[in-house]
Design brief:
The protein is an alpha+beta fold. The protein folds into two domains: 110 residues, Creatine Amidinohydrolase, Chain A, domain 1; 221 residues, Creatinase/methionine aminopeptidase superfamily (Creatine Amidinohydrolase, Alpha-Beta Complex). It is 34% helix and 20% strand. The protein contains eleven helices and 18 strands. The strands form six sheets. Strands 4-3-2-1-5-6 form a six-stranded mixed β-sheet, sandwiched between helices. The chain is globular and about 70 Å long.
Length: 400
């Protein structure tokens, strides 16, 4: 039996779980003020006089308001040289005030009123002729704004949003590190409860309970558990599976701490790995290490993807997206969104900068047989990269 796999129960593991020490504080008001100042500067560099941010992760990043987007517009309008203006349904005022961290001028609209008119009025008062718009703003809302303010040119705010969110502060790195530490411990405990016949649903239920016991915000944010052939599909197959001896187990899960994400994958054998499973697992480990070693400030994101693929091609896998091989990008940015810009993929020429954070997961798929994905995360340092979590040691000690 693979070391660290099996031999315990969900009940026994949950009894010994408690939040670890060192939970970082939430992002402080001074940091939100600095974020807004940087956003104003980057907005001005686009030639726009104001920035519009839609509800969602970017709104939380700039204002502290964890507000899910819906058909009712909640947004921040940030003048390049003034205080934020919040656009909000009147009946949501109390809820917005309870989660807003920054000082803002709140402007309300009732259910029969078009919120775009409030934005148009504010833009007219600013004398704005160009507005940088959050790429996450729905098309319908953008069109309503064009109709309400035809004199204002709408441009993409991606350079502003990504320019701010892609570089993590020390406070953000602390939240990410703590969240990933929780999920790595959950992986260790999940391996211990495996037994022949256990279902994927049972494992997912345990993982959610374990995240909650460790103090994650709201339990698991997602959880994929795949046995055997299902592991050959990057996001699994519909329905439930029961574990059999000799199958590979692929578990991809994560949690949040103050909104910042963990997202870690482990793949290992239930029982003794076959020679082919060992071979592919070792190639995956080598590709992940090559991607990590290629990280340097100034290197384009796509070069990290290329480094992982070069390893696979040297072992006769691929090339490109051909299978057996790597069917998707090597990694994604991570922060308040589990997937965010920039991306470790061909065509993304964004230069790496100190403080950027990424997944490293050059999955290998062997069609109709199995897949191996080892996913850990790193942040870019002044002279390379640093892991948030220790990668798997070997297929025999995958959870150490």
């Amino acid at each position: 039996m693979t070391q660290g796999v099996g031999g315990s129960t969900a009940e026994a593991e949950l009894k010994t779980l408690a939040p670890p020490p060192g939970r970082p504080p939430a992002i402080q008001p001074a940091e939100y003020a600095a974020r807004l100042a940087k956003a104003r500067r980057l907005t001005a560099e686009t030639g726009a006089q104001a920035l519009l941010i839609h509800a969602g992760d970017s709104l939380r990043y700039f204002t502290g308001a964890a507000w899910s987007p819906s058909e009712r517009l909640v947004a921040m309008l940030l003048p390049a040289d003034g205080a934020p203006v919040m656009i909000c349904p009147a009946f949501e005022l109390g809820s917005l005030k309870a989660c807003l961290v920054v000082d803002a001028d709140i402007r309300l609209w009732h259910e029969h009123e078009p919120p775009a008119a409030l934005i148009a009025q504010a833009l007219a008062a600013m004398g704005a002729s160009r507005l940088a718009v959050d790429p996450a703003l729905p098309f319908g809302a953008s069109e309503a704004l064009r109709g309400a303010a035809p004199q204002v040119e709408l441009v993409s705010a991606a350079p502003v949003v990504d320019g701010c969110r892609s570089i993590k502060s020390e406070a953000e790195l602390a939240c990410l590190r703590y969240a990933k530490g929780l999920t790595l411990e959950v992986h260790r405990r999940a391996g211990r409860i495996l037994r022949e016949g256990i279902t994927t649903a049972e494992v997912r239920s345990f993982i959610d309970a374990a995240h909650r016991a460790l103090g994650a915000d709201g339990g698991s944010t997602f959880c994929a558990v795949q046995f055997g052939e299902a592991s050959a599909y990057p996001h699994g197959l519909p329905g439930e599976q029961s574990l059999k001896a000799g199958e590979l187990v692929l578990i991809d899960t994560g949690c949040q701490v103050h909104g910042y994400h963990a997202d870690i994958t482990r793949t290992y054998a239930f029982g003794e790995p076959s020679p082919e499973q060992r071979r592919v697992w070792a190639i995956e480990k080598e590709a992940q290490a090559a991607a990590f070693a290629a990280v340097r400030p100034g290197v384009p994101c796509e070069a990290i993807d290329a480094a992982a693929r070069a390893v696979l091609e040297a072992h006769g896998l691929g090339p490109d997206y051909a299978l057996p091989g790597l069917p998707h990008r090597t990694g994604h940015g991570i922060g308040l969104s589990v997937h965010e810009a920039p991306y470790l993929v061909r065509g993304d020429k964004t230069p790496l900068q100190t403080g950027m954070c990424f997944s490293n997961e050059p999955m290998i798929v062997v069609p109709e047989q199995f897949g191996v994905r080892l996913e850990d995360h790193f942040h870019v340092t002044e002279d390379g990269a640093a892991w948030f979590t220790r990668p798997s040691t070997s297929i025999d000690e995958p959870l150490s």
